Amino acid sequence: MATILFYILSAVALIATGLCVTCKNAVHAVVYLVHAFFALALIFYLLGAPMVAALEVIIYAGAIMVLFLFIIMMLELAPNEPGKGPGWQRWGPVLLLSFSLLVCTLLLIGVETTTADGVPAYYASPREFGYALFKEYALAIEVVSFQLLFAAVGAFYIGKKDCRKEDKA
Amino acid sequence: MIVPLSHLLIVAGLMFFMGMACVLARRNLIMILIGVEVMINAVGLTLVGASAYWRQLDGQLAVLLLMALTSAEVSISLAMVVHLQRRKRTIVADHYDEMKG
Q1: What is the pLDDT of residues A29-59, one digit of tens each?
Q2: ipTM
Q3: In this structure, how many other beta carbons lie within 10 angstroms of the beta carbon of residue A92?
Q4: Looking at chain B, which residue has its C-alpha nearest residue A42?
Q5: Torsions phi, psi of A120, nearest 5?
Q6: pTM of the model
Q7: Looking at chain A from residue 94 to 153, which residues have their Cβ under 8 Å from any Cβ of chain B?
Q8: Which residues contact B68 (CB under 8 A, 6 or more apart)?
Q9: Percentages of chain B per state (helix, strand, coil), in multiples of 5
C-alpha cells in the first residue's frame, strides 16, 4: 500500500514539476510548484520523516512560495490577460493534481508502513528529531541562525531605495 | 524502506534535472529561482531517502539545515530581483550583459 502510494505521489510530483518548469506564466508555475511540494511532503511522511514533512509544507509551500507570489504581484511580472483555450485546459491539470493529492492524503491516514518482509519501516518521531537537533547539532543550529540573520541584513540592504542613486549618476 | 533506494534516486534525479533545465533554459529571473528551488528539493528528497535507508536521523537534520539555507538564499535573491527590476525595469537575464567580454 505504502509502495503504491509512493509511486503515485512520485508521479504527481514529477508531473507538477514538469508543468512548473514549462509554464509561461510565473504565477501558474508557482501554483504547480506548491503541488509538487505537497507531494514531496507526503513522500517524506511515507519515508518516516513526519517533522520534515510538516516543515516542508510550512516553510516551502507556505512561506517561500508566498514570498515568490508576493514579489511577482508586487512587481507585476505576470501577464494578467486571461489564458487562451477552453476552460478545462487551464483548470484540468491543476484540478487533477489537487484531487490526486487529496485522495493520497486520505489514504495515508490508514496506511501501514511496513516493508515487504514485515520489518516496520524507519520512523523518526518529532521528539527524537528535536533531541538530535538540539544535542548533537547544537552548533549547526547556531551557525544557521547567524546565516539567517546575515541573509535578513543583506536583503534589507539590497532592497533599500538608496541603491538607485549610483545607477542614475 | 518501502521502496528500493534506486527508485527514489531516479525520482530525485529526474526532478533535479528538470530544475537544472529550467535554470539553464529560462531567461526570466523568477523562473531561474524556481528552478533552483526544484533542484534543492530534489536534494532534500535524496537526503530523506538516505535517512530512511540507513535508519539514521542525520539525513533529516541535513534537510532542516537545507531549508534554512533555502530561506536565506530566496530572501537575498528576491531582494536582488526587486533591485534589478527597479534599476532596469526588466528581469530578463539577457538584458544584464554589461560584463560580457
Answers
A1: 898 999 999 999 999 988 888 889 999 999 9
A2: 0.89
A3: 11
A4: B45
A5: -65, 140
A6: 0.86
A7: 113, 115, 121-122, 124, 128-129, 132-133, 136-137, 140, 144, 147-148, 150-152
A8: A144, A147, A148
A9: 80, 0, 20
